[in-house]
Amino acid sequence: MPTHRFTYFFLLTLILSTSVAFAQRYESLQEIRKLAEEGSISIDEAAIAHFEHFNNGKIHKCATPAHMYLHQNLKALKPETIQMLMSPVASASARASSEYLSPSGDFVIRYETTGTDAVPSEDNNTNGIPDYVEEIGLAADSSYRHHIRLGFSDIFSVKSRPFPIEVANNSGAYGFVPPGAPFIGIENDFAGFPSNDDPDGDVLGAVRVTIAHELKHVVQFVDNNFSGDSDFWAEMDATLMEELVYDPVNDYYNYLTGFGDSIFEEPYSTIIPGSYEDVSFALHFAEKYGNDFWPNVWIEIKQNPSVPFLNAVRNEIERQGDSYGAAIAEAYMWHYAAGIINSPPDFGFEERLEYPVSGAFVERTYSSLPDTLSGSFNLTRYSADFIEVDLDEPRAGFTSIQLAYSNPFIQLGLLAYFENGTTDSRFLEAQSSGQTRILTNWEWNDLDKLALVVVNTDQTAIQSYQIRITSDLPARARLAQNYPNPFNSRTILPFDLTKQQNVTLEVYDYLGRKIQTVFSGELDPGTYELPFDGLNLASGIYFYRLQTEEGAFYKTMSLIK
Q1: Among residues 61, 3, 51, which one has the least CA distance to residue 26?
Q2: Pairing assessment for the beta strands 423-429 and 410-418 based on DSSP bridges
Q3: Domain CATH number, residue 413
Q4: Cross-strand bridge partners of residue 118
Q5: Separation of alpha carbons 495 and 110, rounded Å
Q6: Which residues, including other chains, have CB under 8 Å from residue 69's CB and lie 6 or more apart?
Q7: Number of domains within the chain
């Protein structure tokens, strides 16, 4: 057996630095891919630039994206480029001088005890295996169990036992998975890496989350062979696994800002494609819908690898019975409500107090209410504007928002902060008419602050909107059309009231039989949106009736399962 291996990234750096094809530095992997798609640089130059991106002296969460790009373009690359980029992989996968089988027997950890790639020598149980290596084995077994328990694919449906984990000096990357996912690469000592919250120390915390992260990349390979649109989101997905498997470690806190276009720092920049700084976007859906949300998304991707990632997300949201637009708006609202300044006690992420303060990046602030629609504001694809209303003077009446838009991709989320310390939220979805309005039952004089999150859910194009924030009362009692309509299980029943009064809202089937009393009691004047759940009802046409002191109102709605 050889007693020493070339460090993977060290060898790659030597090859790149001596190659005539050595790539210039680019701002991001997204820029590299875009230039290659436009033909401004060749596929070979783009592949080399991907690897060179991870040899810039910075610490990177994961170097797998470079390997994914190489894997996806093997047929298009020149043989000499493939040999140049693959030779370090062959070197890194050469058998090490020492091996350790994880307690389950599912993973073999290959490591060195001397040289550049040496692991820490501590062996507190004096069994001849460095503690560092044993911890890698424990983390691998635990991560694998968690992946299976959560409902993700089993890597051993494709890979053989024991699966290799190569330990080496990665020169600034926590880990990586090479083309074809033949092994997991992990840093040999994590010296100089960022701190984390693991009670057993930073090094063990880094070991644990790296194994959880890289194992998810192997699962991604099993699901779709590193192909399709979903690979753009692979880093966000793998970083999410760190939190799902090792919640106390919180290493991902280090990457929520300062790496790419973070939602916390630049909500007005697109998050497409999502990288590890966008893990909070994925975490929102896991916390809101439960841990089966993302396994269900990946089941669809596995069954149809060509499905765009965000389309699979949309399909799962709608399978949950929710509106896609409102769900995306709420995801951005959770980001606005993060940090110690804007975090209410009853809204947002579980760990929101530990997150950056997104409210510091508010796009506009209103201290008075404009009388007319604003000028036109542009939002790039899949991004959001954070807007605050903090009035200088008291204002009578109820909060009213008028929204005009270029296309019905614009969504609006409202988060009201009341003087008594409570909060409330509303969502307003754009309709095909190009303009819509929401009148709430929030009195301006009761509000401490109003936050608005305007979201463009278009995945490809800039969209524009105009907004007017004012004080109003409904002109008449009104029962509005439910949304979504048709609906699958859950929908919203909106209505306006002009004065305080007793009301009853009921749902009937097409034969006139009462199905449910949604609400019965006294309400203040304002606009209301009450949820209705038809989970146990058959598909068909239903009626809903609002009885007020001003008369009775009827609407029909369609349930489709």
Answers
A1: 51
A2: antiparallel
A3: 2.60.120.380
A4: 112
A5: 65
A6: 29, 33, 46, 47, 50
A7: 4
Assigned domain for 325 exists: no
pLDDT single digits (tens) 322-340: 999 999 999 999 999 999 9
Q: Which residue is associated with the tokens 């929520």?
A: 256
Rounded CA separation 178/161 (Å): 18
Closest CA to 85 of 96, 97, 98, 72: 72
DSSP track, 458-510:
-SSS-EEEEEEEEEE--SS-EEPPPBSSSBSSEEEEEEEESSSEEEEEEEEET
Report d(CA 133, CA 236) in Å as an integer: 27
Task: Quote the Cα angle for 365-444-453, to 5°.
Answer: 40
- My answer on whether 348 and 448 are in the same domain is yes
Say what percent of the chain tops pLDDT 70. 92
Q: Is residue 322 part of a domain?
A: no
- Closest of 481, 521, 476 to residue 496, by C-alpha: 476
pTM to 2 decimals? 0.81
DSSP designation for 359: G
Domain identity same for 483 and 344 = no
> Which of 57, 92, 127 is where one domain is finished?
92
Q: Which residues contact 511 (CB under 8 A, 6 or more apart)?
A: none
Q: What is the predicted pLDDT for the residue at 23?
A: 46
Q: Residue 174: which of 58, 12, 48, 89 has the closest Cα?
A: 58
94: tokens are 């050469």
Coil, helix or strand at residue 85? helix
Q: Judge if 399 and 496 occupy the same domain.
A: no
Measured in degrees and rounded to the nearest 5, phi and psi for residue 31 equal -65, -40
- Of 307, 325, 346, the domain-final residue: 307
Instruction: Please tell me whether residues 117 and 260 are part of one structural domain.
Output: yes
Reply yes or no on whether the pLDDT at 9 is more than 70: no
Q: Tell me if 201 is assigned to some domain.
A: yes
For residues 550 and 16, what is the distance between their CA atoms, to the nearest angstrom? 78
104 and 83 both lie in a single domain: no
- Which CATH number covers residue 150? 1.10.390.10
Question: Does 132 share its domain with 32?
Answer: no
pLDDT tens digit string along 114-131? 998 999 999 999 999 999
462 & 495 share domain? no
**β-strand pairing of 410-418 with 447-456:** antiparallel
> Three-state SS for 443?
strand
Over 50: is that where the pLDDT of 79 sits? yes
Quote the CA–CA distance of 284 and 461 in Å, as a whole number.
24
Burial of 288 (0-12, 13-18, 19+ CB in 10 A): middle
Q: Is the peptide bond before 248 cis (omega within 30 degrees of 0)?
A: no
Indicate if 366 and 282 belong to the same structural domain.
Answer: no
Domain that holds residue 18: 8-92
276 domain residue, yes or no: yes
List all residues 6 or more positions away from 94 whose beta carbon is below 8 Å from its beta carbon: 2, 5
CB 414 within 8 A of CB 452: yes
Check whether 29 has a pLDDT greater than 90.
no
Note the pLDDT of residue 16: 47
Q: What is the mean pLDDT of residues 514-526?
A: 92
